[in-house]
Amino acid sequence: MDQKAVNKIDLIEELGIRHGMGRAKAKKAVDAILGGIVGAIREGQRVEIRNFGVFATRKQSPRLFRNPKTGEKIQKEATRKIYFCMGKQMFDVVNKPRGNHERN
Fold this sequence. Notes:
By secondary structure, the chain is an alpha+beta fold. The protein contains three helices and five strands, in the order H-H-E-E-E-E-E-H. Strand 1 and strand 2 form a beta hairpin. The strands form two sheets. Strands 1-2-5 form a three-stranded antiparallel β-sheet. A two-stranded antiparallel sheet has the order 3-4.
């Protein structure tokens, strides 16, 4: 499965094309959206985008690891992990048979 990943520049270009805006304006819009998502997650809030999905964090407990080379035990502090849960509409689009997918 050799697919190109969609990156931030691709999103900016797509937004500019679809809404007839210049690259600078589209970049500001994408930065504002991504910044809002990151800021909310940083504050511990869930970000719910209807028909798309939910971004949230989960606590990961402190754990003890072992260095395979030296055998030394290493304590890892508790952290927060980000997860994404697809909305139903996103799930349906992702799981449609290939060829039936329309890009809106």
